[in-house]
Amino acid sequence: MVTMNSSMSGMVNSFSRFLLGTIVMFIYIVITKKSFKPNRFKHIFIRSAFNSISIMLFSLGFQYTTITNANMLQMTYPVFVLILAPIIYKDKIKKSSYLYLGTIMLGCYLVAFPDFSSVNIGDVYSILSSIAAAISILSLKEAGKYDESHIIIFYVMLLATIINLPFVIKDLAMPDTKVLLDIILSAVTGVLGQVFITMGYKYVDNATGAIVSASRILIAAILGIVLFSDPLNSRVVFGGIVIILALIGISGYFDRYKKTNV
Asked: What pTM was computed for the model?
């Protein structure tokens, strides 16, 4: 709504989210008298940088493609986790995961359906966002071995605010007040999403968490159709179903289900 109703860049949404998150986490750490000192800053910095890049690209994607496409393509980040994990951290990958990898790529093709003569730049931004998110997730796993969640979230928000600042100075200098409420709502819901997913993963396993997270594709599609009249056809629906099923498969849910029913 910000980008549709004003000339402001979509990155003003990511900046507002990170700025609000920094303020909230700073207040939380001060009130609870926790330490600001990280044990291993390297992984936190990598997590911060690539998380910032991912959100920035994701925000740009909304400017040029549909809500449905942006979410579907950005949610393919497990594919790139699968590709990069053995390279960066020497993780072992199940052979079946590569089948899901191919399935997700098929789903992405159905959703974006590029003709290669006029590729939608918004779809490209969303896929690049997915790659950055994968590196961010891998770094988060390592950061979590050395530092507590509040430290990681605080520095992720703080560094991302700094990284975003040069790209939104123009918008901040001449803000469009008619979309101010939308910017605030974007920031608040973005921070709440980060808080709830962090809290939620304490009570569910990774497989269940992945399935719930993948439901964002369906929710985004519904909101896109209702609020923004996004086009929806059988190809996009089928592509979305393919992506969701493959993401569930990568999470290990199907293997776990088989074991519990043997």
From this structure: 0.73
